[in-house]
Amino acid sequence: MTQLTVSLEQGSDFTVLSNRFIDEYMVLANDAQIKIYLYLLRMSGANLPFSISDIADHFNYMEQDVLRALCYWEKNHLLSLDFDSAHSVKTIRILPLPSKEASVSSDITPPLSQIQQAEIVPLAPKLAISNVLAESSERTEKPNYSANDLVAFKNNNETSQIIFIAESYTGKPLSSSDMQTLLYIYDKLGFSIDLIDYLIQYCVDLGKKKFSYIQKVAIDWYDSHITTVEQAKNHTGKYDKSVYTIMKALGKNTNPTTPEIAFIRRWSQEWGFSTDLILKACERTVLNTDNHRFEYTNGILSKWHAANVKSLQDVEALEEKHHTKTTKTSSKNAGNPKSGFNDFSQRSYDYEELEKALLRSN
Length: 362
Prior knowledge:
The chain is mainly alpha-helical. The chain contains 18 helices and two strands. The chain folds into three domains: 19-137, no CATH class; 147-235, Arc Repressor Mutant, subunit A; 241-306. The protein has a two-stranded antiparallel sheet with strand order 1-2. The longest helix has 24 residues, at 312-335.
């Protein structure tokens, strides 16, 4: 077999990684933990600010995934986490790798003099991390269910509904691995059928049909103590990416307020508008007003809802109908213009007879 040689052209655009990390720490860490640690090194070397939510967005993880990875590296003495009064991560410090003697015992912490003083999270994260390690240890890890377990799950009158719901939303028969995930969510996380129904619907609406993603969302809800559909709606409504897309479309770069969330939920959930239609209304709002944009957009969508608009094509048809009606009205008015003079009835005169009458009078 041909031997490969790897060469490195030195430059400023690279991140230094310890060989010991590759040899000793990468073996035991999972993909998320490795990616997040490398990302921290990269951001630290570039001296760039970021937040927990930035890391989650970059890798398409849940914020709880990021927090668990940070706790993992802190437990292995590669990071040091500082918290504020609200128990949120305030600062992350990258520690030098423990010596081989120290790494034998996980209870040995490097002296503070060895800490690399690199505060790489000056922006406050949006999610609290209090008791993350405790919660993670309390939650039962996903077991490897037997074939008999899966058969019993499939044949049970109650749980068979879950399989039917999942296959309806995803549009495909479930594999053994998919059923393992569903059984875990129902059996160990304790989700009700209604909550599983909403969970799968929520993920599919985001375009995420893989059960690995559905499991991640389920774990996030479990860690957030969500047990009802209403709690899940409140949770997803605030952090749903479509909410921030709509906020951005209206020129707002802040977190949504409670009234703004109420508007967006009305448009998407109560009135059933797609994100494309909502963004179309936002586009028209921005072109017409700088103030009260949520109210203005609500007015547009209210009219579309009354007209039973379901798609962008429906909007075009509605506008074409309005344009045709307006054109006919304008043409009619042009043939009989109303003015101060034309408001009176027009008379027809015989000018020759008028002239003769004037001569006789003289």
